[in-house]
Amino acid sequence: MSDAPELPKEEEEEREEELTPEPEDQSDDSSGEEAAGNTEMDFLRNLFSSTLGLGSADKVLDELTLDGVAQYIKSGKCKNILCMVGAGISTSAGIPDFRSPETGLYANMQKYNLPYPEAIFQIDYFKKHPEPFFALAKELYPGQFKPTICHYFMKLLKDKGHLRRCYTQNIDTLERVAGLEGDDLIEAHGTFFTSHCVSFCCRQEYNLDWMRDKIFSEDIPRCDKCSSLVKPDIVFFGESLPVRFFTSMKMDFPRCDLLIIMGTSLQVQPFAGLVGRVSKGCPRLLINMEKAGQADPLFGLLGFGGGMDFDSEKAYRDVAHISTCDDGCLALAELLGWKVELEELVKQEHARIDGQEKEKEKVGESKGAAAEVSAAAPVAPEPKKEE
Ligand SMILES: [Zn+2]
């Protein structure tokens, strides 16, 4: 994991200044003056490139289509692909979007007696009243963790040496189930994969199985060592994003050859702002049910650039493929000549996961804990075994 090639630090910083001045960045820049200088330069650059059409000099794709992207990937010039993904890549796996108001989540929360609905995800409230969060976690717990075609497409990108990293907003751990490892991933909003004791003196780590057992037995998870509360490592309101998000972003985006954005409407900051951190020449492909991330004309003018431009006459690098993430990945895989391989991978892996679930069920039954397991898998396709 430590063998990923990294440029020496100095070169890194140099490249970054050159390529990714980022006016919105408040979190990690110690030099305010320098940042202001960059903002000004960036503003001028944007102004010149938009008024004089200089941007077109950077054109990398032959055409702004999925096929254009596929040709670029096949050209051999596209070594560092970054993926940015959101809830849309997991909907076909039956994972509810934990925080989206569209799930009707907030409308359905009277029963938890919250002072206001968002309190359920607020860290201060959680520390005093963890019950509502864990009750909701039980209610929304996915029946099974089976990654989608889109997840396996990213695994294929990794296997073929193209994937530099995947930045995910999702907390469902499906990227890991699909075979991406810790170093391949930035889980920007945290993950259910691990949990920690909230006591600063202790911070004992617990795994997903431990947490799931607690959630389903309706025990409020308490640390075995110190009895403090144990919380899944998802980012609550009032908590900062993982440090790795900020450190990796500085390394990854300046050297990105292709940014693939899938299943996110690019509305949550600071995640959404990442699209503006790649170099001006870096092509960006959006696979989503609707266009997203387009620059607000007003903000564009003010130099807070970096928004997507799919349609204007100056568009030169952004491609929108409007479809489900699975369909978009299949279409791209077909253009790359990877479709059979991708379908085979999905089939194999899903069969393996089904096998594991059956195994778990058997173990559960022999322990006399079948009820618990079936509660954990409400949509499992397997019929109950005959006694
Ligand atoms: Zn503890």
TrEMBL record:
Its main location: nucleus. Its cofactor is Zn(2+). Zn(2+) binds at C197, C202, C223, C226. This is NAD-dependent protein deacetylase. It comes from Cyclopterus lumpus. The gene is sirt2. The active site is at H189. Pfam families: SIR2. GO terms for molecular function: histone deacetylase activity, NAD-dependent; NAD+ binding; zinc ion binding. Residues 1-36, 350-387 are annotated as: Disordered.
